[in-house]
Structures
1.
Amino acid sequence: MADVVAGLAVFGAVIAVGWLLVRTRAVPADADGVLTRVCFFAATPALLVTTLSRADLTAVLSRSTAVAVAAELTAIVSAWCLHRLVLRRPTAEATIGALASGYVNAANLGIPVAVLVLGDAATIAPILLLQLLVLTPATFTVLDAVTRRGNPSRLETLTVPLRNPLLWGVVAGTAANLGGVDLKEWGGGYPAQGLEMLGRVAVPLMMLALGMSLAGAPRPLRNPAPEEASPSLQGSPVAEAGSEAHAVDTAGGRLPRVEEEPAHGVRSTSQRGAGRRSGLWLAVGWKLAVMPGLAVVVGTAAGLSGAQLLAPVVTAALPTAQNVFMYASRYGAAKDLARDAVLLTTAGFVPVVLLAAALLH
């Protein structure tokens, strides 16, 4: 427990440095965007390659990993049912609400938290693959359908994950591991040294960028005009690094907002506002309480306990990924809910991790 607290204290201190750098104007307010792209396109893929190339893959593909995957899928599906059938939100908004309830920040926060709390970044790789190869294409398919988007480049949209350097970092590291390749034997070891150097800066750069982004983030529960909701988070790493490049740039521009009314009739503005606030609190509660609880239940049923159970619970407690806000912005659905869920779950996940560590470590 003491090790976890110490690790999270270091985590918080580096975030605070990033926040202070922006608040004191030592760096430009948009500096987090540059750091995010450095992490996304260079440092984090290098970290994944070096980590996975020497990881024990039997430990990575374990019952603990299966529990984390099962908890995320269960949380997203069950949250969608509640948003759609209980809160009676339109399908597009229910989809964004479900992602806000379960799509975890696997890269920008998942990797440093895995390093600090679990001691191994490799444990997050299966969750990255689940989100990049399954959840993202499925989300685009559903949102394209319900917003009736005329999309001549649907193939390009659905192949977004294949243009993600994090995916290729996982693939390259895993391939090197399975092929028995020692990266230090290639090119006199210089390529391996370069990868190691880049990988070592990934975690501190992610934390600095997170602090910088929080310094300029809007207050949750505000209702900004559409044009002010996006810029404060565009390119920020409050959650997944680099999501802007892949959720927006490959989309061919933003779409007009499409409001799909529930079948039971037109609702008043106050009713819609109350419904959206209910959706936000449902998403935040589901992400920070229900999803970790699901990990505990599924993990216990799978025979996990102690440190083995801690890994999927910590993964489940990770905050909502920035990708969700980008998808909401792109399709004009539940943007405020997605933005506020990212901020509130980012602020709230540390107590959940500490509680899980106290009970399970």
2.
Amino acid sequence: MRLLHTSDWHLGRTLHGVDLTAHQQVFLDHLVEVVRDEQVDAVLVAGDVYDRAIPPVESVAQLSAALARLAEHAVVVLTPGNHDSAVRLGFGSDLLTERVRVVARADQVGRPVVLPSPDGDVLVYGLPYLDPDAARRTLAPGDEPLARSHAAVLGAAMDRVRADLAARTADALAAGRTAPRSVVLAHAFVVGGAASESERDIRVGGVDHAPTAVFDGVDYVALGHLHGPQRVGDADARTVLRYAGSPLAYSFSEARHTKSTALVDLAPEGPVRVRLVPAPVPRRLADVTGTLADLLGEAGEPHVDDWVRVTVTDDHRPADLYARVRGRFPHALVVQHRPPARAAAGTAGEVTAARDPLEVAAEFVAHVTGAPPTGAEAAVLRRAYEDAVAAERSA
């Protein structure tokens, strides 16, 4: 059985105000070609299909067309991530054909999409993004809610997966059939993963990650959320955990990523085999630094067609800086002047999506009051932040 693992399309996203729809379409066209040429049996999309809960109409149409094209060649299984609205993405999932399966409800965790094969079935267990505040009651085995953490809700979800897998394995062996192989499709921050600046913070109770051990007992875990393609956990472990990563670089922290999709081969027995297929790069991201004269000359030549963040280091701000830089680099997204004296003195920490929002808030309190927040004040800040994040997800 050959699977293709992808995630974090973020349809509808912009990059410093630039519309990425056409670049995302290049990736989707590439994806259809890979599925066709590599004879893929199923496509697994591990969340953050859209960039926000209420996506633009153009993004909905783009997803609809992509799913229709992919379904001509393979079964498609997708789950919502923390950027998606599970209700909106999952609307009509019970009415979809067998070729497109949307697993969007937490109460359906543990019910696999069965991919039949003469060599033994492959069971795909979709885990929609599990917000601890909602899922701790839905997934609780009794009346008492689970602990308020990602590890607790993912652990409860995987208990359901392992119970169903054990029952189906016993049935297959009793009937003289090959034991099924198992795949979990999950959107989460797993310990050991390397984050970038463009992922939205998902911390609850001050913690945003879950241990790799929570996924023990299955063959492959197709992860979404982190934008860098990477394997996490022990390289010798039976369970292979991998992030597919985003198809495009969505921040300058991803400029050095090699974006890809993962082709996963599952034989009836033996280890999981993974081969990465590089994604197309419609336009590169690059950081360029130097004096304006250098950048307008030979030093800037390799980057004139890139999306660039330009840092000009002249002692004094050059006249018409922005216009002159844009004349040289028509796709410049950020233009900043940072003379050597200022760089040596240090600058205030830049607030990006990678920064802990609670840390930024604590720094502001310290700046205004002259002292860091007390324990009680820190608790109020955390509760306010988590309420704001929950309100945004439910929009």
3.
Amino acid sequence: MIAIVHHPDYVAPAPARSTYQWNKNGLIRDLLLEQGARIDWHLPDLTPIAWLEAVHDPDYVAEVLAALVPREKERRIGFPVTPQVALRSRVVPGGTYLAALLALRHGFAANSAGGSHHALAATGAGFCVFNDLAIAAVQLAAEGIRTLIVDCDVHQGDGTAALTAGHAMIATYSIHAEKNFPVRKARSTLDVPLADGTGDATYLATLEATLTPLLEAVRPDLILYQAGVDPFVDDRLGRLGLTEEGLDRRERLIASLAIDRGVPLASTVGGGYGTDALDVAQRHVRSMLTLGTAFEMGRTGNNAAVVR
């Protein structure tokens, strides 16, 4: 079985003036439900306010939870923060944290939302309100868990890098389209910028060549994986050229690097944009199932069969 974290409040009604595909998380849930007994469902708790404030400015946390975010910050986020959006934003980081705990127990788990890597200390940005990756990693660090955040979204994980910079128990890796959002990049532990149109072969070779030595240097207790599917060639907001098979191979490679080193992995959804929300949701679910299958095979000693 594959451990999946989901909460009903992940599925929020679309606020006005929003171009974000709010039905994506509901579609992800429905597609996972079709997997039947293969999925082991887990419900997260609301994220404690103290955890949010350990990463974000307390005044910004209060603005979000009261759904009183100033208009200029809402413009940076990309949608209004309604009470439903505020509730969703509070529950998602707890889901990423729970996925991490489940991964530490079982080897792999996935949050069916999250990956909000653009959110900064005092504001959200780029469809991200609270940075669930940083929040979960900081709380795990307080519990003695060393985390490597691996971000394979097409956009650099600028918020995550900024919020965790200098933290002795957290390292960050971002492989992304160099000329894509955000214009002003942060500094991750390791950044791997790629040229527009980079396809499967170059992407995968670069990912393996750069992530492998970082894993050896950091020796994390856990990988938090931002499994954005927007490197896909036809993604509306992407600039890279991966095929669906390339995305599958990316997940198998990430899983293999973790399994070979005995490192648990928890994934989040991350970016994925298109004209058809169902197509995007299917890519996200395919990512979770590919990762889950690789870890299942790794537990039975068949990892060599799923590497490439």
4.
Amino acid sequence: MSSNKRITNAFKQAKKLSLNKEVKYILFSDCHRGDNSFADDFSHNRKIFHFALSQYLQKNFTYIELGDGDELWENKFVDIFNANKDIYLLLKEFHSKKQLYFIWGNHDMYYKNPKNVAKNLNTYIDSATGKKKDLLPNASFSEAIRLEQENGKSIFLIHGHQADWFNYTFWKTSRLLVRVLWRPLQLVGINDPTSPAQNFKELIKVESRLERWIKNNNQMTITGHTHRPRFPSPGKVPHFNDGSCVHPRCITGLEIENLKITLVKWHVITKKNGTMQIIKTVLEGPKSILQYI
């Protein structure tokens, strides 16, 4: 199956959510939550991510994670949960408000099977009492989401690995290579060449395939996967990318509020008095969504 057909199938089967002036969405992707080992790229941004997400919870945003949230190629979920329990308990608060949606990517394609979602995320063991507690029962996972207006126009949300045949069709092979070969090499600084985030030629190929589909279908689209933030000007190909949560010194994401879209980063600054603070910086926007759809 071609990348065009994979993307088209995902579009046709996408979960639909409302898009209007009242709803507020925050989109992050590619957290790659790990086990807090030296190979865990998320660990140095975990506190930034937790603080940012807590701010969006207070402001009544709906959180949509665009794939590769859990690094299931390298780790067992129990180890991921134990290293990031505070993150999952925060996600639980979004879930209890019915304001949490996940899209699966290649590194968490395991969640394509609802039984695997239930196995990992329905409950957890409370270390204080030794009893099971609800975590994210019936968590919403899908391949794609469409944020749709009443007139039918929409924003298409997808991880983006549908345009990366090796990491979509042969994701189990990729997972095996990462577990057996690249994870140990990552500890000594050698990157995985199969990842478009670490291979510029592959990144360009993936983005080109995505943009070809976007042009042919005249469809505003937001992806992750490549870890490269994108925020096009009106009139250009409407391909946005929220970046990732494993940048060396920050996390990036896209806010959708009042029918406007904004690319933001959350990062740490040092104040003149020597104290450190997590702040949000606007990188691009806000721009009216109506200029793109």
